Amino acid sequence: MAYPFQLGLQDATSPIMEELLHFHDHTLMIVFLISSLVLYIISLMLTTKLTHTSTMDAQEVETVWTILPAIILILIALPSLRILYMMDEINNPSLTVKTMGHQWYWSYEYTDYEDLNFDSYMIPTQELKPGELRLLEVDNRVVLPMEVTIRMLISSEDVLHSWAVPSLGLKTDAIPGRLNQTTLMAMRPGLYYGQCSEICGSNHSFMPIVLELVPLSHFEKWSASML
User: Would you give the distance in Å from CA 45 to the centre of its chain?
Assistant: First the structure.
């Protein structure tokens, strides 16, 4: 999860988020180099009175500064398209969980089990235990197995919501009457926090998401205890 005065993105937990972090660094480096070059040229033009007329009118220079931006855009677009296709790919999920957005809580249903569903409400500040996080803790966490491909089916029963967990690279809109899907796979156990990322009314800030990723054996024991 994020910490105070954090400048970068959250640590990646899924392969998709790792790819997104690499792409972010790749694009940021290109932007940094372009900005440095432009700043250098502007400062040069402001501080010198000399003008090279043959350079200003050279067709070779115009050709270079036309082709070079096109090459840079290709270097940004190709990895971006690759990640987009990876994010949309569904590879034989081992578990399917349906989540529905409500004003202002989430409900979850494990569709592979006969009767495993629950609502997840934010814990009020006055009921928090020591060490729990304000506006992020819920009464029922979503327990999922790690290192397993999981399909999330996301929809809403009232207004637009958005189911987002930054450390897993997930952000999918919950739209009434439409079923969106995304996949997740966590590489290590832990608690992963998210929130509704679509303004959905007066209590929009009070719809946290908590995923508890555990080994498969622990998940099987938990699911057996919930049935």
Answer: 42
